[in-house]
Amino acid sequence: MSPCAVDPVPLYEDRDGMALENLSDNIDAVNVMKADMKREKAMKERSEFDAEKDKTKFRQYEEACDRVKNFYREQHEKQTVAYNLKARNDFKSKTRAEMTIWQAMEKLNTLIDESDPDTSLSQIEHLLQSAEAIRRDGKPRWMQLTGLIHDLGKLLFFYGADGQWDVVGDTFPVGCAFDKRIIYPDTFKGNPDHDHPIYGTKNGIYTPGCGMDNIMLSWGHDEYLYHIVKEQSTLPAESLAMIRYHSFYPWHSAGAYTEFMDEHDHAMLEAVRAFNPYDLYSKSDDVPSVEVLKPYYLELIDEFFPKKVIKW
Ligand SMILES: O[C@H]1[C@H](O)[C@@H](O)[C@H](O)[C@@H](O)[C@H]1O
Ligand SMILES: [Fe+2]
Ligand SMILES: [Fe+2]
C-alpha cells in the first residue's frame, strides 16, 4: 500500500483530541522556524547596503558643528512630558493642510535639517536617495515607498512648530529616565523632567514589557507622519514601524529601552534595523534627478495611498 492510500486523518480534525494537540505543536514549531528565517533574512538584508559604507563617516556627533550641538541642547531641554501631551492634543485638534504626497515633498524641500551632521542636501533629494537605495537592492515596493516618504513629517516645521527642536533629530522616550545612550546625554540636565520624582526614575510612568506602542516618544516628524500614514494608506505594519521609530537611535542602534518591548516589537525592531542603513548611508550617494524619477514614484504613491489628497 502506498503511503498515499493510508486513511487520511486531517490534522485539524479533532477525532480524539490528539490531532489538535499535534496540530498546535506543529504550528508552534513552524512559527519558530518562520521567525528564525525572518530574522536571518532581515540580518542579511541589513548587511547588503551596510557593507559598502564606511560608518565612521556618519553620525560623528562629537565632531559635529555648533549648529548640531545647539540644536540638541535645546531639544533635550524642551521635550518634557507636559510638552508632549500638548503637542499630541494640538495634532489631533486640526488638519493643517490638504495636498498630495508629491506636493508635500516639494513643500518640504526648502527645509535644511539643523540636527543632521551628514547632509546638506534638500529633503526631496534625501527622500529619493533613500528610496532609490532600497529599490536598487530589490526590496518590496512598500519599502521603497517608505523610503520616499519617511521624513515627510518634517512638514510640521511649516505648521506652527517652535523652531526645529520639536520636528527633527533623534527621538527618545519621555516620562522615564533619559538613557545615557542618547546622544549628548548630559544636556538633559536642563530638562525639567530630569529630576522629577516619577519621570526621573528608570521606568518612570511605564512598566517593563508594556510595548513600544505605549511609550511616549519625543514629539517630532516620526510620530506625526506615523499617524497620518496609518490612517490614510494601506502600508503594512513594518512600514509604519520604520516611520515611527526611524529616529529612535537609542533603541534601534544602541540597544536602550529594550525592557519596554513586547513580543510584537521584536519583529518591528528587525524591520526598523533593515530600513536604517538606507536612511543613513544613502546620504553619500549620488544626487538623484527628481524629474527623471518622478513618474515611477507617482505610480508607487498611488498604489498605497488610495486618496490622492492627504490630510496633513
Ligand atoms: O538628524 C537626523 C534627521 O533629523 C533625521 O530625519 C532623523 O530621522 C534622525 O534621527 C536625525 O538624526
Ligand atoms: Fe527622519
Ligand atoms: Fe531620513
TrEMBL record:
Pfam families with a match to the protein in the record: MIOX (PF05153)
GO molecular function ontology, one term from the record: iron ion binding
Catalytic activity: myo-inositol + O2 = D-glucuronate + H2O + H(+)
Keywords for this protein: Cytoplasm, Iron, Metal-binding, Oxidoreductase
Protein's pathway: Polyol metabolism; myo-inositol degradation into D-glucuronate; D-glucuronate from myo-inositol: step 1/1
Cofactor: Fe cation
Binding residues annotated for substrate, in chain numbering: R59, D113, E114, S115, K154, G169, D170, H246, S247
Listed GO biological process terms: inositol catabolic process
EC number(s) given by UniProt: 1.13.99.1
Cofactor descriptive note: Binds 2 iron ions per subunit.
Keyword Nucleus in record: no
Gene Ontology annotations for the cellular component aspect, listed alphabetically: cytoplasm
Cellular compartments annotated: Cytoplasm
First-listed, main subcellular location of the protein, grouped into a coarse class: cytoplasm
Binding locations of Fe cation: H126, H150, D151, H221, H246, D279
PANTHER family documented for this protein: INOSITOL OXYGENASE, MYOINOSITOL OXYGENASE
Family of this protein: Belongs to the myo-inositol oxygenase family.
Protein name: Inositol oxygenase
Organism in which the protein naturally occurs: Hyaloscypha bicolor E
